[in-house]
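User: Please predict the structure of the protein below. I'd like the answer in structure-token form so I can feed it into my own downstream comparison script.

Assistant: Understood. Taking the following sequence of 253 residues as input:
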Amino acid sequence: MRLPIIAGNWKMNTTVEQAIELVQEIRGRLDEIEGVEKILCPPFISLIAIGELMADSSIKLGAQNLYFEEKGAYTGEISPLMLAGLCEYVILGHSERRQYFGETDEMVNRKVKVALKAGLRPILCVGERLEENEAGKTEEVVTRQVKGALVGIDSLQGLVIAYEPVWAIGTGKAATGEQADTTIGLIRHIVSQLYSQQFAQDLRIQYGGSVTGANIAEFVSQPEIDGALVGGASLKAAEFLSIVEQTANAKRE
């Protein structure tokens, strides 16, 4: 039985003070919810403050990105060595990084490698654009992204994959539970071919894209879906708590 996992990606939102207030609002109840792994991914500037707030809780901390070099003249970038010890997880290959900052499959692969080397647990994001979906290229695109991100990697211990169809991110238009389950089943099959059937069955794969308290049950009730990477709804205390609670309840049934 795979432990469900809910990660809140705050993106470029919240000052340090606002991040602290949000965690203070949700920490007590979030810590009480069992049967689901809970991760908060605030902006870099809040990692230390939030880490201190959650030090003795069951809530894990994640970063939203990293650079694929350990150090050097890369103004404005954050290296895996800077994150190691501050957080446990790191989101890599998010569609917004691919779309706005030109990240390629090769760059994502390099990031996954350095994250694993530093002892961080990547949340690897894959997903097709609207035009690719409408052209029937979902399988082709997702297969390319998964295989590209994992080139030359022998051990994936700690890896999580998030299927995030680009057309559903921040649009309010989520995939159906059945659509997401089918694609996540495909991802699991690809991983089984690259590694082993057992590893693929143990691998946790999330859905992401306009996830809310109103639709989370539709996703986590599916057999292949192990949770969600939550965007805007993770900034709303009651909404995020509802998502985590519903996930825990669905997976206990």
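That's the full token string. The chain has a mean pLDDT of 95.
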